[in-house]
Amino acid sequence: MSLHPLRRNLGLDLVRVTEATAIRAGRWMGLGKRQEADQAAIQAMVEEINTLEMNGYIVIGEESKSGLHSPLDSGNWVGNRHGPEMDVVLDPIDGTNLLVHGRSGAISAVGVAPRGAMWSPYPAVYMEKLVVDREVAHALVKETLDAPAAWTLAMIARIKKKTIRDLVVFVLDRPRHQDLIEEIRAAGARVALRREGDIAGAILAALPDSGIDVLMGIGGAAEGVMAACAVKALRGAMVARLAPQSAQEQRQIEEAGLSLTQVMNQDELVQGDDIFFAATGVTDGMLLDGVRYAGGMAYTHSLVLRARTGTRRMIRAERFATDS
After folding, report:
1. Alpha-carbon span 4 to 87, nearest angstrom
2. Pick the CATH number of 11-117+274-320 from 3.30.540.10, 3.30.70.60, 3.60.110.10, 3.40.50.150
3. Could you give the residue range(s) of every CATH 3.30.540.10 domain in the chain?
């Protein structure tokens, strides 16, 4: 790992990155132009993150899933190349389809930790995840990922002093989750289905009193590493395992020497406590409000987390909308 001391809260630098990205991306809300929205967000993030005083290495980018190549690809370096060496995982827009169709829940997010702290799932695209908050964290063992959903929900309900029907489970609305959704409903719990946005879903599951009790199902691998940054800072717990969704992805994972059976927790996904995470809402969602524009100003709502101190900041900011 990097030997550079972390003398300041990098999260307050990172939030400038997600704010600038969200402001640029928000202009594409509801316009139906996915590629243009992605490119605008990537450009904004590159411009802003390269002003930060760090030597950042992107552990896993979005190119495997999006097919877009950019300066934010896996293995590239970001920052001004001075300051501490950091692992970086980022997503200019988590929920691009949500954004371009004017739906809720799109965010911009960045997580960093000292160099060598983050596990890299590259070239994997998909990962199975289960996330809970600090109240349940002590009981989330790796074997839980293979347990029936009804057993897991009963355990969570017992610890939270709730009935199973009190619980709300965040699940991505995908055909691959049909059996899981039926199992959750059969157990008596309620399901919060969302088209995209499993970074926000993981954070909601790790936040006490968010209205979401647990996240279950298969989402992005890059998003899983980023979620682990936030989950650790919130003192929640997470277990995850690679879950390829095609024969090609499985072959690439095996050729890279990655395990298809290993279950990892948040401490293995991201080591140590010098972890910082920032996210800004692009469109309104359960976690963050979206960007507002008025009178030449842009108004943003952001979350900043620092794992070492367990600090959670919710920041509302206004700045000149110089993006247009």
Report:
1. 13
2. 3.30.540.10
3. 11-117+274-320
**pTM reported for the whole predicted model:** 0.94
Rounded Cα distance between 196 and 81, Å, is 33
Q: Which two tokens stand for residue 226?
A: 């980023």
How many CB atoms are located within 10 Å of the residue 78 CB? Answer: 24
* Cα separations in angstroms, 25 against 79, 87, 156: 21, 24, 37
In this structure, are strands 107-114 and 214-220 parallel, antiparallel, or unpaired?
Answer: unpaired
pLDDT tens per residue, range 270-324: 999 999 999 999 999 999 999 999 999 999 999 999 999 999 999 999 999 875 5
Return the structure tokens found at 93. 């827009």
Of the candidates 215, 217, 207, the one whose C-alpha atom is nearest the C-alpha of residue 241 is 217
